[in-house]
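Consider the following assembly input.
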Amino acid sequence: MECRVLSIQSHVVRGYVGNKSASFPLQVLGFEVDSINSVQFSNHTGYSHWKGQVLTADELHVLYEGIKLNNVHHYDYVLTGYTRDTSFLEMVVDIVQELKRANPSLVYVCDPVLGDHGSMYVPQNLYPVYKNKVVPVADIITPNQFEAELLTGKNISTEKDAVEVMDLLHAMGPDTVVITSSDLPPRLGDRFLVCLGSQRHVRPDGSRTTERVRMEVPKVDAVFVGTGDLFAAMLLAWTHHYPNDLKTACEKTFSVMHHVIQRTISYAHGKKRLVINA
Amino acid sequence: MECRVLSIQSHVVRGYVGNKSATFPLQVLGFEVDSINSVQFSNHTGYPHWKGQVLTAEELNVLYEGIKLNKVNRYDYILTGYSRDKSFLEVVVDIIQELKKDNPSLVYVCDPVMGDHGAMYVPENLLPVYKNIVVPLADILTPNQFEAELLTGRKMNKEEDALEVMDLLHKMGPQTVVLTSTDLPSKQGDQFLVAFGSQKIVKPDGTNTSQKICIDIPKVDAVFVGTGDLFAAMLLAWTHHHPKDLKTACEKTVSVMHHVIKRTITYATEMAGPGKRPSPAQLELRMVQSKADIEDPAIVVEAKVLQKSLH
């Protein structure tokens, strides 16, 4: 398999968020991962302390220029996640557009990180950039319910709403949408949460079809950081192997998440000192 | 296995040098790798073009402070390689000294990158820092012949010289020294280069001894970048699993190198096409494709035990 991913995300010295969360799993699955680190922090911002440096939009451009000057700016995938800076995000969009010109079959996997549980946790001025510039160039997006509602301006109270929202998102650009978590009532009980996915296909005869999937995922009583980044990376991998089978791609992706999370929670509880904050 | 490595090396967006070369193989082998990127460049400096940013000594200190404030500054290994800045190297030393105070059994694996084939390719003012401050702190050292000669002030013309140089390096600090390549003639002919290793061991009765080995390594007709970084990382891993058996640790390390390099040259030659020399981009190590070899390297070299001597 000769598949090259450009991943533009955070780097933390210690721990697994951003590029630290995405790179190793993708490499283990045989993907070549080129990574531009948008920041270098000691650790993620959920710890008691964090320190480090950020990459400016200019510096991002300089790095991309280096790749381009060597004529190696050919990628099969681009992967982006958490960003806090509009000019940085706009530079990312320029890069994606140029890479798509170089390779029209490039797939842009975008986690439109804006917020969760009813509130934004990035600067508000990122919202129009995502809505008007980023999502239109994305091929696969992984919003949570809050982000999906924000991007479409439509609330989700029922599964029917969710399907409509995913169709609105398709109309904005991406052929594959996965709502990674929602407040919809699970059929399996309140120890589960509901996730939904939608993928548009063009059949050989030229007609269009949409595959819809619904998953109920066991809730875990802990706050994890980096899981969304791992999810987007693994969805990239499994949609690569199952480009026309969102059901299987999602089952594999959610299953990986489950195993990693289970192992993490067992380990965290097993230690004598409480380490969930570290 | 719960083993945490702090690796302070370069990051390149594309390709495999520095932390990009060291991290994936160590993670594949089950090590937790914390990585501080000393630079972020588009690619290594052997390409026609390269662009990027460097981390200052101050910024390095700030990152370490973050780790320390969270009380997670506890490591089993430190790994360092190519550095160009004296003040950066000095902050690295301060960090290591502090980490060793916190964990006296910490092992510092140091590739004292200064040059090769008779010439320095880092600023000259790094030599005294390596010689006087860095090497004394190191536990495992992976110099090439030129670097070993520079550090000890002693030239190597024959095997005896190599053994003496390694003993001189032991005296400076590290219990484990591997001369990763030399110009000394190989008994297997000129298609081979000779590497040496020496490890000080304390016997159960308290006396000191050392195990000295040599390995003949098949030469490859190409310039690879990042192989030294991979070597140091894999030596860290295999000495971890074989702490008193340098012969086995080196056989595994050199074998991994062989598999990765062979896979790389095959791919690069194919990409370049008949009669063409592969480009730096084509010669990037086939790291991801070598995962199985990294996990469980088939042994393709045999190290010769030279002599055990008393000190």
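Chain B has one domain: 4-310. Ask yourself how this observation constrains the way the partners meet.
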